[in-house]
Amino acid sequence: MKAPFQRIRTLPARIASLPDSLLLLLFFAAVALSHLTLLRLPYFWDEGGYYIPAALDFYHTGQLIPHFTNGHPPLPNILLGSLWRLVGFHILATRLLACSFAALAFLAIFRLTERLLDASAALAVTLLTSVYPIWFAQSSLAHADVFAAAFTLWAFALYLPSLQAGSANGSQDGRAQPHYLSVAVLFSLAALSKETSIIQPAALTAWEMVLLFGSRRSRPERHQEPSLGLGLQQSGSSGRHGAWAAALASSVLPLIAWFAYHHHVVGFTFGNPAFLRYNATANLTAAHILRALCYRFLHLFWQRNIWLPIALALYCLLLPRRQDAPAALQPGPLYAMAVLAAANWLAFSVLGGALLTRYLLPVYPLILIVCVSQWRIHTRRWPLFAAAGAAAFLSVLWLNPPSMFAPEDNLTYRDMIVVQREAIDFVQQRYPGATILTAWPVSSDLLEPYLGYVNHPMKVVAIDDFTLPQVLLAARESNRYNTAIVFTTHFVTPLYRRYLLSHPNTWRGRAFAAKRDLTPTETAALLGCRVVWRAERGGEWAAVLRFPRSQAAALRPPR
Predict the structure, then answer these.
(1) Cβ pair 128, 389 in contact under 8 A
(2) Which of 152, 292, 353, 521 is the S-S candidate for 362 at Cβ 3.0 to 4.6 Å?
(3) What pLDDT sits at residue 551?
(4) In a domain, 555, yes or no
């Protein structure tokens, strides 16, 4: 009986001994198979709104700047466009490229945790990250975040182990030797994938400068070689901190070059005025920043059951340390991770128009590393904690909390794609010559066959959403369309919707009422038509409305 258990105990070490190329293939196979039902889905939301059209511009013309000039760096466009030139433009190819970068990120998480802790912890953290709903959902979507996260996590895997105690004088092992150039290049690639990724090297540059000044102040006592209390020794540390600060700071240079080129070509540095206003200037108010700080804190430490591993780690602090405890996470990497978490919390409370959790992808594995480290040094039953965390993460892939959240935080995004595609299929089959009243993103889906919803463009009249003011505006021009596809543009789970509707005098109830989508029945009553088809999946709904008339209307692009 001992032999099977012995093989199980040695499995993480045997996995860790595999070469990176083989591990990457295994991780890619695992990601692709776990996303098998998602790989042929049409493009979703921001994929169709920016990333795919931008990559198609590079694919067709070779130009780095897309025609809508919103300033995002070009590396995802280059990667996608180059892939399509090799294999042709296929949704499956796009999804598999995203899976490959997710696998690359998981390999980085595995190696990072192995170097900071050991192979058992590495396997646990990697598995927990891979099933965490936000990571799982993003692993097959062509958003820039998964590309940037892969490069960022590999930079962490080379940088954070260098902060282990004893590595300041190169006395640990070869894996902890400084990789200044490699880290600078990886952070540069991350920033050229998504500009906000520069937050990571900027935060670490500031941290290295703090360590540098601290080591210089203590230099007169260096013959005693006391610890700085940060997991590093004074001896020979000043030059190392200075070199790291320079390497990390240099990663901003390619991003500066990109913005200079962008300004030279189109006259805008950070994108067109509408893009800049939505993502920066419109958010620089005290009310928005305070609200964002609250939401970002919840995104980091509560969202999608990540509170459970954190709560188990806090519980472990009440337990005595194991006498045979494995190596714990050392202060140097631990403080650096805290700096990174704080920097992302603060920066993403100011930057970005939408409070999307995918912006925080590189931080979630760091939180899980800290949690697993605490579990291991306080209890031998820590694998049960890992299993409980994995079960909690898997459950909320499908189960939704009674709150508002982005559909891409879990598999709700699939429900959204499916109901909208079914509505479009119904209209294509029943009313192929219809002129359709709808809103974005369905308006784009109907006009652009490359998004995967239609075989040929259809005639569209676009409004902003299905709130009362927009529907009344559409009612005044009812002669322009004869069919409508309505759907939820502000997702709310059914349970939370009922709560908000039953509490109209609360601030949440008033905010919901101001921007809620009318139901298909309410919309049909205002427009003078009838509901001919409807479907709902987990709170995501869509419906087709048909008018008892037939007239021609002009083809108009969506707003």
Answers:
(1) yes
(2) 152
(3) 47
(4) no
Starting at the edge strand found earlier in the chain, the sheet holding 530-537 runs 459-463, 435-439, 483-487, 540-546, 530-537
In this prediction, what percent of the chain has a pLDDT beyond 90? 74
pLDDT in tens, 367-396: 999 999 999 999 999 999 999 999 999 999
Q: Kindly give the interhelix angle for 363-378 and 286-301, rounded to the nearest 10 degrees.
A: 40
For residues 334-360, average pLDDT = 93
pLDDT at 62: 94
Three-state DSSP class for 536?
A: strand
The structure tokens 């490959």 sit at 100
Q: How many domains does the chain have?
A: 2
The two structure tokens encoding residue 558: 């969506």
Output the CA torsion sign for 148, 153, 158, 164: positive
Q: Is the pTM of this model over 0.85?
A: yes
How far apart are the C-alpha atoms of 21 and 486, rounded to whole Å? 47
In this model, does residue 154 exceed pLDDT 50?
A: yes
CA–CA gap between residue 309 and residue 366 (Å, rounded): 12
Is residue 556 domain-resident? no
Residues 68 and 182 in one domain: yes
Domain range for residue 541? Answer: 411-546
